[in-house]
Amino acid sequence: MKNNTDFLDKVYEIVEQIPYGRVTSYGAIARHLGMAKSARLVGWAMSQSFLSQREIPAHRVVNRHGLLTGKHHFGGSTVMENLLRQEGIAVENDKIINFAKYFWDPSGHLSTNSKH
DNA sequence: TGATTGACCAACT
DNA sequence: CAGTTGGCCAATC
Q1: What pTM did the predictor assign?
Q2: Mean pLDDT, residues A31-48 taken together
Q3: In chain C, which nucleotides are within 7 Å of a protein Cβ?
Q4: Which one of A4, A10, A47, A79 is least enclosed by Cβ atoms within 10 Å?
């Protein structure tokens, strides 16, 4: 039987697969799950991620603007920023610099190289 | 059981 | 460019 949180598992699976030094957006994950319009569910799922026993790099998930919308949910004000900076990601004004450069597409996790 | 909220996104005005 | 509206799904009150 499926748990009542089957979609949460899918989200966690993807977030856990986010490589170091990369970030993604709620909408990208939602779209990958076929719930593009339900990006809020991903955000809500992330709010529960810290309750999960697995280590979810939720700091690598931001909104489509690269803004650290959920920084307050890390138990601090600049915790999320620091975590991203530790991975080599430049963060300024609660926003990721060169967001598109660090953006990681969940659908492209199979292709290590992204031809550009 | 209905109404409200939520770490969102896109379109419209 | 900024504010509003619609949409989606799940949890909480």
Answers
A1: 0.87
A2: 91
A3: 6-11
A4: A4
